[in-house]
Predict the structure of Glycosyl transferase family 2.
Amino acid sequence: MTGLLAVLLIVLPQAWFYATYTVLVLKATGCRMQTHLSGRARGVSFIIPVRREPIEYLERAVNYIHGLGVEDYEIIVVSDDDEDVGEVLFERLVEWRRKGVNVWLVRRSIPEGYRTGAVNTGLWLSRGDYVYVVDVDAMLDKCLLEKAIGVLEANGNVAAVVGRWEPLNLDTRLSEALGYSMKFIIDAIYRGRSCMGLSVFPLGTGTLFRARVLKGILKGWDQERIQDDMEIGARMMYHGLGVKYIDECAVYVENPSTYRALRIQQSRWAYGATDVLVTRLSHILRSKQGFLGKMEALAFLSQYIVPSLVFLGSLVLAVQVVVRPVDVLWEYAYLLLLLLASQAIFGRHYYRKLKEYSGSGLKALINMGRSAAVTTALSPYYFSSVVKALVRVRMQYARTPKGIHQSASGRLRAPWELVFAAFFTATGLLGLTRGAVVTGLWLLSNALAYSYVIYRWPRDVFFK
C-alpha cells in the first residue's frame, strides 16, 4: 500500500501538470492575438519598492521610465533601506529632479508589510489614473502603456492589463534556461488562458492597474500576503473585475543568474502561491468565473504543490526500497506508462518551443535537461515552503537578490542538495542490487539532478 501511495504521488501530479500545460500550449499555438486599441501614454504613477537593491539598478530604472516620454507621469520610490542608504538615495533624488525627472522618494523607517507594504505606501501617495509597479530589474515597452490604456478606456470592467514577460538576461547557464522556460510558460499560461477566454493573474511587474479600482474597491494590496500579484488577482476574480493580457508588448525582466538567488526566489514564490490558495480559496470559488476558470485558477495557485508531491513520493519510494526490496515502479508499470506518455507529449511541444527560442535543437535539449535538474534540486525547498503555508507557519519575506547581491556569502549553510544526492544515490544503488531495477533507476535519476547542481554551483550549495 505504501508503494502504491509513492507511485501515485509521483505519477498523478506530474501527469495532471503535463496534460494541463499541453492543452494550454495547443490553445496558444492555434490562436492569434492582436490588440487594436491604443491610447496616449499618460497619467501613470510608477511605484518602485526598493530594499537592498543595487543603486545602479535603481538609477537605470528611473532614467528608463523618464525616457519613455509618458505624459503627466510620476515615479514614487519607496525605500525600506537603512538610514545610510537613504541618504545616498536622497542625493540621487536631488540629481534626478535637477534633470527634470518627476521622481519622489519615500523612506519607511519601519518596513511593515515588506514589499507589499511599500507598494501600498506608494499607491496611497499616487495621483495618477493608472498605477504600474516596477521592479528595479525590469524594463517595459512603451506600447504596453499605450495599448493597456486603450483597453482600460474602452472596457470599464477591466481593472488591469498584463504585458508579455521576456528575459532581459541570458548571460549564464542558469539565466538562459530560466529565460527560455519563462517564455514558454508565458506562452502557455497567459496566451493560452487568454485564448480560452479566461481571466489571467496580474504579474508583480508588468501590469498596468486602474488606480480607482485599487483604491476604491480593492483597498490596496493585502500586506499579510507575500505574493501580492496572485493575491490581488484572486480578489479581482471575486469582484468580477477583468484582467486582460497583451501579447505583442513586452516587459523585460532579469532572471536570477545564480542558484542561490533562484532558491530564495522560488522558496518565496512557493510559499506565496500556496498561501494565496489557502486564504483566497473561497474568493475564487465564489467568484463570477465559470467552472473552468475557477479550476484553472486553482491549478495555477497549486503549481508548486506538484513538485512537492513528487519529492515526497520519491522519499517514500526510497524508504520502501530499504524496508522492502520490491520494484514498486515496475509493479505499477501501467501508471509509469501514463507518466511517460504525458511527458512525451508535453516534452515534444516544450522542445519545439525552446528550439524556436534558441535557434538550436541541441541547445533546446540542454536547457530542458538543465531546467529539469534545477527543478528537482529545488523540490525540497518547494516542499518546505508549501508545508509551511498549509499549516499556517509565517514565512519571513526574502527579496530576490539582484546584481552583486546574488553571489553567496562566506557563511556556511546546510547543503541539503548534497544530503539528498547521497541519500538517493545510496537507495538507488541498493534498489539495483536487490533487483528493484526501475525503482533504483528513478532514485538515481533524482540523485543525478542534485549532483548536477552541486557540480555547477558548489558555492551556492555550501554557502548562504
Summary: The chain has two domains: 2-25+303-462, 32-257. The beta strands are 44-50, 74-79, 103-107, 130-133, 138-140, 158-167, 207-210, 242-253. The chain has a mean pLDDT of 92.
